[in-house]
Amino acid sequence: MSSQTEVIDGYVAGKWTIDAVHSDVSFFVRHLGVSKVRGSFAAFEGTIETAENPLDSKVEAVIKTTSVSTNNEMRDNHVRSADFLDVEQFPEMTFTSTAIRPQTAELFEVDGELTLHGVTKTVTLKLELNGFGTHYEGHAIAGFSAATEISRSEFGVTGGAAGAAVSDKIRIALEIEATQA
After folding, report:
1. In whole angstroms, how far apart are CA 136 and each of 70, 84, 139, 140?
2. Alpha-carbon distance 32 to 16, whole Å?
3. Number of other CB atoms surrounding residue 165 within 10 Å
4. How confident is the model over 107-153, as pLDDT tens digits?
5. What's the pTM value of the predicted model, to 2 decimals?
């Protein structure tokens, strides 16, 4: 589908570095079935390679699980514990893309391998291409939004006794700005 580049306005092939200052990695999970607890990860990095054929593009990302924040120190410490992320044993989660499928000119599905809590599973990100542009300092930038939902139990994240109060499904949302390397 090499003609895909013709319908992506301003598409730029190349290597990109995720700009963590202008990006966000967030999640939310239902608590007691009635509310949503939101959180984010402050430390992450990654690279994106946009290929001449966009469907041959690749993404690799690393998220530091120790950087989780839900704006509540007691809860954050519990999420970092062996009950949930076990950050001492598993200080990172990783994502490596394996395939990209177009949905429309700006919407794609990105399959990849997510490793969390020592378990690797295939996940699909719904990706929106927000566009390509030029930073005020003159370098090329690109923007992407992506989301997926995972089952924490499939990754061995039980939650201990508190696991019954938290839904198994976790929604992950990414807002990514990348700079051409």
Report:
1. 33, 41, 8, 9
2. 40
3. 12
4. 999 999 999 999 999 999 999 999 999 988 889 999 999 999 999 99
5. 0.92
